[in-house]
Amino acid sequence: MKFVAFERAKQGTGASRRLRITGRTPGIVYGSTSEPALIELDHNALWHALKKEAFHASVLDMELNGKEQKVLLRDVQYHPYKQLVLHIDFQRVDENTKLHMKVPLHFTGDQESPAVKTDSCIINHVMSEIEVLCLPKDLPEFVSVDLSGLKKGSSLHISDLVLPKGVTAVTHGKGNGVVVSVVPVVTEEAPAAAAAAPAADAKKGKGKK
After folding, report:
1. Would you give the distance in Å from CA 174 to the centre of its chain?
2. Tens of pLDDT along 62-102?
């Protein structure tokens, strides 16, 4: 995705407040060998961009002073109750340096799986994203997860994910985490039968007396 940023001359709480009144959002770009740069963005354009998944999980093309540079969204500060972005941070990307990034998971095929289609189970999504390590050029916008092969009692782990070439999952020593698990549906008949059993035993006891 591409967006346009402008140089910001002034900084400080007062300057940022005045900037927001004019429909602009203050921000900063840092990283690489360059000094941090103060920027401002059109708030409405930024607000709509932030609603797109790709703006959060992919390398972005930022145009500043007529030149483009690769950046990643690193932090967004929202107003507590207004639809207002208070501040935004971007990090410059070095194409030769691997980066850590959280990438969303896109699930498909759950309704075609034997777990759902045959055994009427529920598929529980334990994770909605994973952290990956890769070069900027290899960063995927999302990772597809095919659930069509899931069966009753099975689960899907991080090691089962099919990652693009050059991309590895980062677990921070937490092991091979569960991404998806299959949960059997509990029917109401089972509790009813359990309740009927003590009642039947009570009747038998009365008959013995």
Report:
1. 18
2. 999 889 999 999 999 999 999 999 999 999 999 899 999 99
Looking up tokens 């740069």 gives 37
According to DSSP, the residues that pair with 183 across neighbouring strands are 122
Classify domain 99-187 by CATH number.
Answer: 2.170.120.20
- Domain 2-92, CATH number (from 2.40.240.10, 3.90.226.10, 3.30.470.10, 3.30.410.40): 2.40.240.10
- DSSP state for residue 160 in the 8-state scheme: G
Label residue 197 by pLDDT band (50, 70, 90): low
Give residue 52's identity as a one-letter amino acid code: K
Residue 194 has pLDDT above 70, yes or no: no
Query: Strand order of the sheet with strand 178-183?
Result: 122-125, 178-183, 155-157
